[in-house]
Amino acid sequence: MATMENRTFDEIAIGESAEVTREVTRADISLFAVVSGDVNPAHLDDAYAAGTRFKGVIMHGMWSGAIISSLLGVHLPGPGTIYLSQSLAFKRPVTPGDRITFKVTVKEKREDKKIVVLDCSGVNQDGKAVVEGEAVVMAPTEKLVPVAPAEPAVTIETVAYVRK
Prior knowledge:
Layout: E1 17-23, H1 26-36, H2 41-44, H3 46-50, H4 61-75, E2 82-90, E3 99-110, E4 115-123, E5 129-138
Antiparallel strand pairs: 1-3, 2-5, 3-4, 4-5
């Protein structure tokens, strides 16, 4: 049985980092649209998106925030982390087929409330920044090693979006 392990405030070191790489698919874009309710045609409609400044469908900017959130909650610090704030600057569009490497790096620790400040970034397959920012979390003080939950199964069905 697979487990997850956190890093407690005392274990975390300045400069410590965690990263994950994700390849963007049309299914990812559709799933994010469903979960967020953001059905802007720039994300879902090829014909509409072709007429935008990006010349095609783009991933939702906040998808980057969601992946950064997963790094914080699963890897560094991991289970038991309390997410306090996040700032993000979107540097360039992310399109289907892009491979984005997200990284969080500890830059500051505040002993009084067990606060950890992390630089956050996402870089595409060409080494170009797509997102930059900072996260502030309250790190766990107790060691946790929970069983890793199974990834949920999801089925996508295309449904016409009707404006009211």
